[in-house]
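Methods, example record. To illustrate the input and output format used throughout this study, we show the complete record for Glycerate kinase. The sequence lines were provided to the predictor; the line carrying structure tokens was produced by it.
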Amino acid sequence: MIEDRDRLASSEAREAALACVEAGIEAGRPRTVVREAVSLAGETLRVADATYDLSAYDEVRVLGGGNAAAHVAAALEGVLGDRLDGGVVVTDDPVETDRVTVREGDHPTPSERGVAGTRALLEAANAASEDTLVLAAITGGGSALMAAPAGDVSLSDLQSTTDALLESGADIGEINAVRKHLSALKGGRLARRAAPATVAGVILSDVVGNDLSVIASGPVAPDASTFDDALAVLERYGIDAPDAVRERLERGAAGEVAETPGPDDPAFERVSNHIVADGMTVLEAARDAAIERGYEPLVLSSRVRGEAREAATTHVAIAEEIRATGTPLEPPAVVLSGGETTVTVRGDGSGGPNQEFATSAALSLAERETDVAVAAVDTDGIDGATDAAGALVDRATVEDPDAARAALADNDVYPYLESRNGLVCTGPTGTNLNDLRVLVVR
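The corresponding predicted structure is encoded as:
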């Protein structure tokens, strides 16, 4: 799974960190979680705790998108076989499927091919009837991949707004409040298109707290955010949005454009959503891997958020306490956390939240001469807009603290970590369940 793993695993602690990363990602792969959550017995389809009588439907189709959507579709084909009649998913990680059409898009910035794929997805949703069972394969990354600019908003308007939001330090809920109100699909509008079909969401969550309306911008979930909320995000972060974006949001706030459908909307009368994997899925598997190697595990939280470099300082402080006092547990220990940190971009470099977390952690370890290995990765294999999943560091990573500080100041940690042989590269992993951070304390 991890490129150049032998070189990265240069110590027992570093090897343990990589083993936890691999176990976490493997546990979140759709072929694993769908096999556990979805089954077919005769005419009865089980999705998590819900059951569906297939004899009540003329057709069963898969619709959706996200980094792992094609893998979910392939796993659903494995369960349903010839009971599945087709469908469309949009992804940046295509795999071979027999019945579901896989359309490619781009992440984290929407693209023209993503728009074309989403157009096909919307057409398939429009064709659904009350005799259709839609299995909505929704995973992280869907907000960018399922691009459907609404009204007079163009793709370039959407791209520039998305890029500005991603660099602003806004959290995913704030970013998606804007994206939902610029889209013909997000914020429950895909469910509205598919109505009156029965919709069963098969969802892999990459969102802290598993808010259905935020995962992939909630295409089949009720939305409580408003045009006013979207405008407030632009103001809060000083986003200089294109005229068409601001005009649409202002018209919506004035009541001239229909709001996204809320919980009482009839579009959701036949919709149920099922989260089959989330950040805790990853953490539990990483915890088990730590135990197998003789480490005492501590799962801090699956909901860590905030500025990446600041979160790193706090995590390192916990590792230091373990080494110094055996509190809150005795070493050897592994500290684990999930969630989604952010980066407020002020420089002009390359990197991502997990790479900034790792660089900040390495700097703290070097300054205090603390012997801890730290891995931080995005489980989809794409940290920021780079080809790295994240990084693996220890105190030896930083020889020149000033160079590390300069890389952080310019948000240019990717080349710094590359020069220090710290990057962790996996390629697309087939899942997206948010970030995983591992601190190994010998």
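Annotations derived from this record:
The chain is about 40% helix and 20% strand.
The first strand starts at residue 38 and ends at 41.
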